[in-house]
Amino acid sequence: MNRELKRVSFLVIAFFITLFVSASVIQVGQDANLSADDRNTRTLYDSYRSQRGAILVAGQPIAFSVPVDDNYRFQRTYPAPLIYSNVTGYFTLSQGLTGIEGAMNRELSGTSGSQFLNRINSILTGKDPQGASVNLTLDPLLQQAAWDALGDYAGSVVVTEPSTGRILAMVSKPSFDPNVLASHNTDSVISAYNALLADPSDPLIDRSIAGNLNPPGSVFKLVVAAAALESGQYTADSQLDNPSSLQLPGSDSVVSNWNRGRCPGAGATVTIKQALRESCNIPFAELGLALGRQALLAQAKKFGFNSSFEIPMITAASTFPTVMDDPQTMLASFGQFDVRATPLQIAMVSAAIANGGKVMSPTLIQSVLDPTLTSLFDFTATQYSQAISAETAASLTEMMVDGVNNGLAGNARISGVQVAGKTGTAENGVGEPYTFWFTGFAPAEDPRYAITVLVENGGGLGQEGLSGPIAGSIAKQVLEAELGK
Amino acid sequence: MSTQLTASIPRLKRIRPSQRMRNVELALLLAASAINLAALMLVQLGALGSIDLGPLSLCGLLAVLVLAIHIAMRFVAPQADALILPIATLLNGLGIAEIYRIDIALGNTGWDSLAFKQIAWSALALGGAFAVIMLIRQHRVLQRYTYVAGLIGVVLLLLPMVPGLGIELNGARVWIQIGTLTFQPGEIAKVALAIFFAGYLVQARDTLSMVGRTFLGMRFPRGRDLGPILVIWALSMGVIVFERDLGTGLLFFGLFLVMLYVATGRLSWVMLGLGLVAIGAVLANQFLPYVHDRFLNWTNAFSPAIYDENGGSYQLVQGLFGLAHGGLIGTGLGQGMPYITPVSQSDYIIASLGEELGLIGVFAILCLYLLLVGRGLRIGFAGHDDFSKLLAVGLAFVIALQVFIVVGGVTRVIPLTGLTTPFLAAGGSSLVANWMIAALLLRLSDSIRNEPRLVVGQ
């Protein structure tokens, strides 16, 4: 009978080995997959259990968690909800998380790899685990000024530091109140969320880095001018034909300058510098065609087009078409056809020009601090590319200064500070309202701020408005918050 | 070895039995009780943030009861196995701590508190174990009651089908209700049936291991000897069909099969039995919607349709989420969210413990079971007669199989069936039955060690 007993013992051991293996597979092998399943409410509740870290701007919280007496134990609170909503994003029970709340969730909730020791520590001491705080690069003065200056327009203002890529202001309008979505009442969150989704003005979209991207219009001429100077075949003073209208090859369509005539202040030919200052389309259409779509594409990519950035939210990639015929290339040369850009991308173009041609990777994260104020991450500037040479950058700067001092970008002039800038008015189709742009930097001789302003929907003026008075003045007001002090 | 020396041993024992085993047991019991109290305190600190002396003192009382059994055994079963009592105590206490933890989360207090009931039932079960050890001084007495045990087992098994007595909970009809008290007689039935199988197989082993026809290199029993296995199979299928309890049906048939194999040494019985299980599985999957659902839940657990379906895989998947949430080291007692999973205090207690104690805790608990079962099998090896051997292996194996069916179901090795996890899960009948098993194993081990091995020398 002992022989049989032995076999039964082996069977029992086999049972338990099976259970050891199955438990291991679930608890250690598959645990990440199981945690990521969106039906796993434990993952969601977990993010509420620990006191979520704050999101800070200049040491002041723009999002923080306060203890409350319910199952979720902490209530997320946004003290300046509208101004920062596109940056903080929202933190909801049932509708996910966006913005910094989403992109830095692991750090804020204390579950990132670098916080492992803290978690062990809180297990051993029995203390509630705490998330890390995320310190942003934003300058509250500029953010407030950008919010105020944009007024009731739908659009965005982005300010970056050219030498580092740090984002100093990032405003998107219309905005929303993330406090409403942070409620612990799921029904009210869902109805508020659905109302925001249904709102035709799309308040949930961060226009500075995403959404239905706008054609950049004339601000894209900076990229074309950069490609021209980089090609070695052109200088700022190179002459281009200056007709009053230009028939697109193989098409009925005609390209005109904004004044429906020749580029102002020039005769049969016009220099690149003049054409940029007066923002004339025809010379740039000729120039783009001469450079060729491959050269334009290569230059656009060096500035960051056709790429996404993690700031740490994932930005929508601005696009420059990879396949175009000649007429399309000519339209793309003044930022029309299928060229699309985020304000952040255009700010990167200006910043690169301000920074001797170096494109810095944009970011919002200054530092990440664990609850003991030990730094888990500190910002260091990283270069994305050398888009243009320092000489080209200097030459473009000179042209942009000229544009502000003597050209269409005059609305951005600040007394006592030299501003470099470029306006843009992009068409969105027959009868559709224009998109207004301004991009530039200041002070021109020692650039500290690169700014881009986007005003969608024609600023409410349909096809009547002008980019200078609208977008240029906004830029001026924002820059004055720091430079006019 | 001289006859004189061996013959003197029983006499010496009568004068002053060696208490070495009991001393080891005492040390382990103190450790187990300390762990149990610590677990309870951790639960309170984790889930309440403060120490509540009420539950602690109740569990202290349980520890006193266990110590009473221990002291009694110093007199009536001094040579009994030293590990069984501490292991059962530890599992019982961990179960109470986790049940209490979920009570806190669900807001169960007073008589709604399952932990409170579990403590009361534990006291009762310990009383039962005490009675078994005190009353049954020699386990072979049980062999005389083979058919009484069989009758009791079958009656208990069928009791829930009596109208007005049996009640249906979560789709299964395995409970009986007397007043406000509910009881799962099938749990006690497994003890009675283990005794019955052991007694019956001792008598019938010669007939059942008779050479039959050889087929595929294996000697199969004669057709006329198939009666018993078919009866047990029919009984198990009856439980599955009429009480809608897949787990209990599987448990009994598995128990019988293994005991039959040990008794006869014929692998052909196992083959026949597995064949019957296969037939049963196919039939049940075909004609019993609840069994079919169990299979579907098992194979397609993560499919959204099955997850959302009433009686679908929600519970299974939530259990997996809980286990994954625990990970390697667990959330810590009182810090997880085991209460999200349905029936987290009974059928899913292992997932609850796995969430809060992690894979390490699950391994520790499984090791405790393995050790417990191992002690039981060891008693089987040491037994001098067939009845002792069969009874020991039956009692040990029924725990092993039950753990495998429950934990295997929770961890998706096999389809989920509703069974209690021995000693851990909330449920009085299960506690009483398993403490009876522990007491019987203790009695067996003492009797076997105490038997003079003089037979060889004659």
UniProtKB/TrEMBL annotation, chain A:
<dbReference type="InterPro" id="IPR012338">
    <property type="entry name" value="Beta-lactam/transpept-like"/>
</dbReference>
<dbReference type="Pfam" id="PF21922">
    <property type="entry name" value="PBP_dimer_2"/>
</dbReference>
<dbReference type="Pfam" id="PF00905">
    <property type="entry name" value="Transpeptidase"/>
</dbReference>
<dbReference type="GO" id="GO:0071972">
    <property type="term" value="F:peptidoglycan L,D-transpeptidase activity"/>
</dbReference>
<protein>
    <submittedName>
        <fullName>Peptidoglycan glycosyltransferase</fullName>
        <ecNumber>2.4.1.129</ecNumber>
    </submittedName>
</protein>
<keyword id="KW-0808">Transferase</keyword>
<dbReference type="InterPro" id="IPR054120">
    <property type="entry name" value="PBPA_dimer"/>
</dbReference>
<dbReference type="GO" id="GO:0005886">
    <property type="term" value="C:plasma membrane"/>
</dbReference>
<dbReference type="InterPro" id="IPR036138">
    <property type="entry name" value="PBP_dimer_sf"/>
</dbReference>
<dbReference type="GO" id="GO:0008658">
    <property type="term" value="F:penicillin binding"/>
</dbReference>
<keyword id="KW-0328">Glycosyltransferase</keyword>
<dbReference type="GO" id="GO:0071555">
    <property type="term" value="P:cell wall organization"/>
</dbReference>
<feature type="domain" description="Penicillin binding protein A dimerisation">
    <location>
        <begin position="52"/>
        <end position="134"/>
    </location>
</feature>
<feature type="domain" description="Penicillin-binding protein transpeptidase">
    <location>
        <begin position="155"/>
        <end position="480"/>
    </location>
</feature>
<dbReference type="InterPro" id="IPR001460">
    <property type="entry name" value="PCN-bd_Tpept"/>
</dbReference>
<dbReference type="InterPro" id="IPR050515">
    <property type="entry name" value="Beta-lactam/transpept"/>
</dbReference>
<dbReference type="GO" id="GO:0016757">
    <property type="term" value="F:glycosyltransferase activity"/>
</dbReference>
UniProtKB/TrEMBL annotation, chain B:
<dbReference type="GO" id="GO:0015648">
    <property type="term" value="F:lipid-linked peptidoglycan transporter activity"/>
</dbReference>
<feature type="transmembrane region" description="Helical">
    <location>
        <begin position="225"/>
        <end position="242"/>
    </location>
</feature>
<feature type="transmembrane region" description="Helical">
    <location>
        <begin position="269"/>
        <end position="288"/>
    </location>
</feature>
<feature type="transmembrane region" description="Helical">
    <location>
        <begin position="148"/>
        <end position="167"/>
    </location>
</feature>
<keyword id="KW-1133">Transmembrane helix</keyword>
<dbReference type="GO" id="GO:0051301">
    <property type="term" value="P:cell division"/>
</dbReference>
<feature type="transmembrane region" description="Helical">
    <location>
        <begin position="390"/>
        <end position="411"/>
    </location>
</feature>
<keyword id="KW-0131">Cell cycle</keyword>
<protein>
    <submittedName>
        <fullName>Cell division protein FtsW (Lipid II flippase)</fullName>
    </submittedName>
</protein>
<feature type="transmembrane region" description="Helical">
    <location>
        <begin position="357"/>
        <end position="378"/>
    </location>
</feature>
<feature type="transmembrane region" description="Helical">
    <location>
        <begin position="423"/>
        <end position="444"/>
    </location>
</feature>
<keyword id="KW-0133">Cell shape</keyword>
<keyword id="KW-0812">Transmembrane</keyword>
<feature type="transmembrane region" description="Helical">
    <location>
        <begin position="248"/>
        <end position="264"/>
    </location>
</feature>
<feature type="transmembrane region" description="Helical">
    <location>
        <begin position="53"/>
        <end position="76"/>
    </location>
</feature>
<feature type="transmembrane region" description="Helical">
    <location>
        <begin position="114"/>
        <end position="136"/>
    </location>
</feature>
<feature type="transmembrane region" description="Helical">
    <location>
        <begin position="83"/>
        <end position="102"/>
    </location>
</feature>
<keyword id="KW-0472">Membrane</keyword>
<dbReference type="InterPro" id="IPR001182">
    <property type="entry name" value="FtsW/RodA"/>
</dbReference>
<keyword id="KW-0132">Cell division</keyword>
<dbReference type="GO" id="GO:0032153">
    <property type="term" value="C:cell division site"/>
</dbReference>
<feature type="transmembrane region" description="Helical">
    <location>
        <begin position="26"/>
        <end position="47"/>
    </location>
</feature>
